[in-house]
Each structure stands twice: as structure tokens, then as C-alpha cells.
Amino acid sequence: MPKRNDYISWDEYFMGVAMLSAYRSKDPNTRVGACIVSDTNRIMSVGYNGFPAGCSDDDFPWEREGETFDTKYPYVCHAELNAILNNAGGDLRGCRIYVALFPCNECAKAIIQCGIREVVYLSDKYADTPSTRASKRMFDAAGVRYKQLVMHTPSITIDFDCDKV
User: Fold this and answer.
1) Residue 45 main-chain phi, psi, to 5 deg
2) Of 63, 80, 106, 118, which is the active-site residue?
């Protein structure tokens, strides 16, 4: 019997892990997950956007508009930063990070500082913003590659019924 031919690629697999991690986010508007992977295809860490540990997501604002203090923006940790901080001490130099949205400038700094060498993303919908333009400028200067992933598998349904496996 020949092996299956319809399996997903490594890139699709790791992006799937990032997307599944996003489902942990409580953000009512934007759910982002990140997955950091070694050059030998080992998952080093995952993260999603949310408030720092100890800051209850029931006590902090989720608003997107209004006075900055009363919005989510000064409080939420982005998925990329959480993935970097969640790493259990493994060396991230030479790794790649999978993320749904192209990283902001603050996450770009953390990505560069910890030695991640490649960013794989799905959407660059904020490409024209100063934050994303700054990210690309820093990535280019630091030699961090970035590529938009074109998915060959448009969706995957996860079925938790073990009798169907």
C-alpha cells in the first residue's frame, strides 16, 4: 500500500499550530497565534495575544477605541512576544516563527534580539502602516528573512472524536 499523498507540508503544519494557538486568545476582535520552530522542525514555543500573567482578562479593557489607557493596546502582549517569553530556555537563534499577521515593530525588535532568522506569515494587511514598514526595515537590516505563506490546504477541520482516527 502506498503512503498518503494528501498530507500537509511542514509550513502548513506549523502555521496550523500557530492558528490553533490563536484560539486561546480572548480578544473579541483579533486572535493571533505564533509558533517558533527550530531548523530541525522542532517546536520550541507557542504563544497567542492576551494580557500578561496575573492580569485578569475580566478586569482589563478589550476596547479598540477611546483613550489609550482605556483600550487593550497598552496591556495586550502580542503572540510573537508571548511565544518568545514562553520558550523554556532553548536557544532561539536560527529559528523561524510562524504567525498569522506580519509582526509589528515591537515584536520585530524581540524577534531580532532573540536570533530568530525567518518570519513566515499569512497576512500583511497592515503593510502600509509605519509599524509594519519599520518592522521590514529592521528585518532587512538584521538579515531576518520573511515570506508570506501560500496555503495549499485552505482549511483543516479538527475532529476530537478518536473513533474516527
Assistant:
1) -170, 160
2) 80
Distance of CA 82 to the CA centre of its chain: 9
User: Cell triple for residue 120?
Assistant: 513566515
Pairing of strands 118-123, 145-148: parallel
Q: Give the β-pairing of 96-101 and 33-37.
A: antiparallel
Across the range 128-142, mean pLDDT stands at 97
DSSP state of 70: G
Q: How far, rounded to the nearest angstrom, does the alpha carbon of residue 136 sit from its chain's CA centroid?
A: 16
What are the cell numbers at 28? 473579541
**Could you give the strand order of the β-sheet that contains 145-148, starting from the edge strand earlier in sequence?**
43-48, 33-37, 96-101, 118-123, 145-148
What 8-state DSSP symbol labels residue 32? -
pTM recorded for the entire structure: 0.92
Average pLDDT of span 6-22: 94
Active site residue 80: yes
